[in-house]
Design a protein that fits this description.
The structure holds 2 protein chains of 2 kinds. Chain A is an alpha/beta fold. Helices cover 32% and strands 20% of the residues of chain A. In chain A, strands 4-3-2-1-5-6-7 form a 7-stranded mixed β-sheet. By secondary structure, chain B is an alpha/beta fold. In chain B, strand 2, helix 2 and strand 3 form a beta-alpha-beta unit. Chain B is globular and about 60 Å long. Classes of the chains: A alpha/beta, B alpha/beta. The structure holds iron/sulfur cluster (SF4).
Chain lengths: 163, 424
């Protein structure tokens, strides 16, 4: 599986309170959540994001509250993949469980600039920066997790009796 | 190779003799928790998958604590979804307004979590129950849905950091000050993917409230879980709360840790974490002149009876500063009642505080004390992220109940001593 899109870049410790502020947690509607995604640090995000764009963060991306509304809002906004130096663990498992592709790669997190066109291969973890003509090797998922993703998320894996 | 406390609990729940760091396991859970924000998402997933039964109606806890008593129509509808689900599947431990408390104060109080358990909860502060020597960790709503259906959870076995506590806390210093100091020392991702294991002779002087508060904030260092070694106090707590029979897991002598820190409890000062990360910890005496508009005493971190007693001692015979709104939120109905019986509620009201029914309320910027642009609050909660208690231009300073109470009286951040000594 592959994704290609333009990079939208943020810094370290992007917490789930800024990804989707608690004041919007009175709904489970993905569209409504997406319309407020990132608004406390980037008012333009929801307006400017294009389907396929790649979100790039620094270390500890997705820290804080366990709200699954955060990866849901990012996925629904059209982001095809999140790359970060490291992910906070609950965000990491939530993304896997709902089928939002994520890749951990400190080098890519550092070298990709906002607006760069990047392509990500989820099977190998290889990230290609088409603008800068560079490649970075990210951490591919272990087989157990690839199984969850290929089933289309945790609930599908359970339903299909794969777990 | 030896195993840590966490690894032992995980191995036994996965039906294995041995696990090692990095291994992916599927483990049996003793309890699955959700609240009024995360459960509706889990219920959508549960129903979308066409599931028709829960693994054990006694091992699921649904706690309506965040936006309750319902703050608006949408919050009311979310609670309704959960209420109907609870009814349909006859969930034993469904807690609604009138019985509810902030989840991580409520479950230990009800004896629903016990030493040696494996608990998952769709709430990041589920790590609180590590205070009892359990493995407990926050997960997402899909994990919760899967847990409710199967009684199982996938987990990666973590490495661990060890914190060896020695000495005794000074007067007016609590577990909150210790954990803020530790997060200040290792950073908000200092324990990422790891366990924080607390041990050492200093443990015996920490109350269960201190431990619950410290384990609660393990997530603020990025940890998967925080866990305290089982001792006499754990045993006493489990007995007093009528826990079902439990198992004790101790780390092996040759268990491996990625780091060991010695913490001298007697050297810890009243501490505050400045905006906008819990790692910005400083002794209160070093922060200079920081005036405040609001003080919040409550939450799953510090809304327990011992927290209220500490605050009340400081408010006794004193007044909340003009221009400060002080909101006190006992974390459960039982704590509320106890605070009334002990006269603490009267002390708070006499001092000019607002006392609320149990709710998460302002902790997550939900309701009951939202901040306007430019306002500052001192809070006994656990997060001071941008916009956490209201406007993105507001600020939250994290502190203990004693520091929050003293600061409410002084109108600025101060140590408890400075108010008690009349120096303010
Ligand atoms: S009190 Fe705050 S941190 Fe605790 S469960 Fe409620 S919202 Fe979360």
């Amino acid at each position: 599986m592959k994704a290609t899109g333009n990079a939208i870049k943020y810094g370290d410790n992007i917490d789930t309170d800024v990804i989707i502020p608690a004041r919007y947690l009175n709904t489970t509607d993905p569209k409504e959540l997406a319309s407020h995604c990132m608004e406390d640090i980037d008012k333009e995000f929801a307006k400017n994001v294009q389907a396929g764009d790649v979100m790039v963060g620094g270390k500890n991306f997705g820290c804080g509250s366990s709200r699954e509304h955060a990866p849901i809002a990012i996925k629904e906004s059209g982001i095809s993949c999140v790359i970060a130096a490291t992910f906070a663990r609950i965000f990491y498992r939530n993304a896997i469980n709902i089928g939002l592709p994520i890749v951990e790669c400190p080098e890519a997190s550092e070298k990709i600039s906002a607006g760069d066109k990047v392509s990500v291969d989820f099977d190998t973890g290889l990230i290609t920066n088409l603008t800068k003509n560079e490649t970075y090797q990210g951490e591919p998922f272990p087989p157990f997790i690839q199984g969850i993703i290929s089933a289309g998320g945790l609930m599908n894996a359970i339903k299909a009796g794969k777990l | 190779m030896g195993m840590t406390m966490t690894q032992k609990i995980l191995a036994s729940h996965a039906g294995l003799d041995q696990v090692s760091a990095g291994q992916l396991i599927r483990a049996k859970v003793d309890l699955v928790l959700g609240n009024d924000i995360t459960s509706p998402v889990a219920i959508v997933e549960f129903e979308k998958a066409g599931l028709e039964s829960v693994f054990d109606k006694d091992k699921i806890a649904l706690v309506m604590d965040h936006f309750t008593p319902n703050k608006d129509i949408k919050a009311a509808e979310q609670c309704k979804t959960v209420r109907e689900f609870a009814k349909k599947y006859q969930i034993t431990n469904f807690f609604d307004v009138g019985k509810v408390g902030v989840e991580h104060a409520l479950l230990p109080e009800m004896g629903l979590v016990k030493p040696g358990d494996l608990i998952i909860g769709a709430d990041s502060h589920t790590c609180t129950y590590g205070a009892l020597g359990a493995f407990s960790t926050g997960v997402g709503s899909t994990d919760m849905a899967a847990g409710m259906a199967t009684g199982l959870c996938w987990l990666k076995v973590p490495t661990a950091m060890r914190f060896v506590l020695k000495g005794k806390l000074k007067e007016w210093v609590s577990g909150k000050d210790v954990i803020l100091q530790i997060i200040g020392m290792i950073g908000v991702d200092g324990a990422l993917y790891q366990s924080m294991e607390f041990t050492g002779e200093g443990l015996s002087s920490l109350t269960m409230e201190d431990r619950l508060c410290m384990a609660n904030m393990a997530i603020e260092a990025g940890a998967k879980n925080g866990v305290f070694e089982y001792d006499e106090k754990t045993k006493q707590f489990a007995k007093e709360h009528n826990c079902a029979p439990w198992t004790i897991y101790k780390a092996d002598d040759d268990a491996e840790y990625t780091a060991t820190y010695e913490i001298d409890l007697s050297a810890i000062e009243p501490t505050v974490s400045l905006p906008h990360l819990p790692e910005n910890a400083k002794p209160v005496s070093d922060v200079g002149e920081i005036t405040i508009d609001q003080a919040v005493i409550g939450s799953c971190t510090n809304g327990r009876i011992e927290d209220l007693r500490a605050a009340a001692k400081i408010f006794e015979g004193r007044q909340v500063h003009d221009g400060v709104r002080c909101i006190v939120i006992p974390a459960t109905q039982k704590i509320m009642l106890q605070a009334m019986e002990e006269g603490l509620v009267k002390t708070f009201i006499d001092a000019g505080c607002a006392v609320s029914t149990p709710t998460c309320g302002p902790c997550l910027g939900g309701h009951m004390g939202i901040l306007a642009k430019g306002e500052r609050a001192v809070a006994t909660t656990n997060r001071n992220f941008v916009g956490r208690m209201g406007h993105t231009g507001s600020e939250v300073y994290l502190a203990s109940p004693a520091v929050a109470a003293a600061s409410a009286i002084a109108g600025k951040l101060v140590t408890p001593e400075s108010v008690l000594g009349g120096k303010a």
